Amino acid sequence: MDTVWVLGDQLNRRTGALAAAQPDTTRVLMVESAAKITSKPFHRQRIHLIVTAMRRFAAELERDGFAVDYRKEPGMAAGFEGHVRDHDPGTVRAAEPASRSATALLESLGVALVPDDRFLCHYTDFAEWADGRTRLRLEDFYRWQRRRLGYLMDGAEPVGGRWNYDADNREPPPADGGTFPEPIVDDLDAIDREVMEAMPATATGDAPYGLWATDRAGALRRLDHFVGAALPEFGAHEDAMLRNDWHLAHSLLSPYLNLGLLLPAEVCDAVEAAYRAGRVPINSAEGFIRQVIGWREFIWGIYWLWPDHPDRNALGNDLPLPPAFAGSAATEMRCLAGTVADLERRGWTHHIPRLMILANLANLVGVRPSAMVDWMWSQFVDGAEWVMIPNVIGLGMWADGGAMATKPYVSGGAYINRMSDYCGDCRFNPRLRTGETACPFTSLYWDFIARHADLLGSNPRMARAVRSFERLSDGEATRARAAEVIDSLMAGRL
Prior knowledge:
The protein is of the alpha/beta class. The protein has 3 domains: 113 residues, HUPs (Rossmann fold, 3-Layer(aba) Sandwich), CATH 3.40.50; 183 residues, Alpha Horseshoe (Serine Threonine Protein Phosphatase 5, Tetratricopeptide repeat), CATH 1.25.40; 180 residues, DNA Cyclobutane Dipyrimidine Photolyase, subunit A, domain 3. The chain has 20 helices and 7 strands. Helix 4 links the parallel strand 4 and strand 5. It is globular and about 80 Å long.
C-alpha cells in the first residue's frame, strides 16, 4: 500500500498528494512533531490551532475510509522512519512543503513530492513572471493575476474601470466607533481540552476560547459569516485601528488559508459572487481579492525566489526585541500596549497594527530583522516562515534595501493618530518630538531619518523627509529624546 504524507498545513482532501488518493490503495501518514511545537516559544493558540486541526483532519480521513497512521513523535524524521518500519509502504508521496527546510527533509527521506497547488500561482510560475524584471512591483503582479484568473474582470477590463480601489480604503476609524459584526466563537470540546492540557512549557499567550476554527466546517462557516456580514464594511476602514474593536470588518480567514482548511479560489469566488449579486461594494470586494491573489501570492513567490532574503539587513539594525513587545514589560504607549494585549489574547492583529505599530516601531528603534521575524512567526496564529520572512524583511523592516518596497514603511505618531483612537488619552502627544510627553514614534521617526540620511536622501520618496529634518531647529534635541526613548524601551521602562 502506498502512503500519502500529509503535513500540518496541508489539511484539504482536494489538494496535493491527497487529491487523487483512494482509501483502498492509500494509507495516510500524519506526524505531530514535538520538536516543531517547541522550536520557538509559540503562542498557545497557534499550537492549539495547528495540532487540533491535524487531529480533526485525521479523524475526517478515517471517516472517509482511509487508514491513518497518526504519530506523535520527537521529530518529523522519526515519524517517517517509524511509519516505514511499521507499514513498509510502497511509494511515499507528499505535496511540496511550504518551507525550504521541510522540503529538504522530505527529499532526503526519499519522499516523492507532487506540486503544491494550494496557491493560484505556483512559485515556479512566479519566477517566470519575475524573470527579466528590474523591479518586482505588487501592482504589476496583481494585474497579471487578475487577467489570467479572471477575477473582477469584464472581458479584458477591470470591473468599474479601475484596477485598484485602495484610495477608497484608507478611511480613519468612524468617529462613533462604528458597529462591526462579532466573529463566530465555538464551544470547546474534548479534543480542544486534550490539546490544551498538553501545551509545552514554552507556550506563550492566552488560552484558546473557540475563536479559531479547527476544521473545514468551522472555516466555511466563518467564510460565510465574513462575506455575508463583514465584507460590505471591510473596504473603507481596512486600515483603521480601534482600541475597543480588535477585528473591525476583517475576515480572520488567513489561518485557514495557510492550513489548507480554505482554498484561495473558493474564498475569492465567494467574494466575487457577493459583489456580482450587489451585496457588497466594489472597493470591499477588490480590496479583499487584492490581498488574496495579489499580496498573499506575491509574498509566497518572493519567499521561494530569494533564498537569501532572511539574511538581509540593509539598515544595519542590531538591537534585540524590546521587552514591551513580548508583554514582559508594561508600556505607557497606548497603541503598543493595546496591540500587544490583542496579540496575547488572540494571537492575531490585522495588517496595520503589524506594519505601522509593531514593525514600524521595531525599525525606528533598530531591532534586528531576524529577531522580528522569529517573534512574529511564533506569536501570530497565521504565522509561517514563508509569510513572515518577506513581510518582515521586505515590507516591515525594509531590510532588503528596497527590493520589495520603494520606501521604508515608517511614520511618526501623526499616522497612528489619524488612523486610530489610541492617541486621545495617551500621555504622549503625537505632535511633539521633544520633551517627556513627546510621542516616541514621532521622536524616533526623525531620528531614523537622520540616522539613515545618506541612504534615504537618494530615495525619491524619502528625500523630502531628509531635507525636512535638516531644516528642523530642534533636530539635535529630537535625536537626544529618541536616544532616551530607545534606552527606556530596551530597559522595559517606557
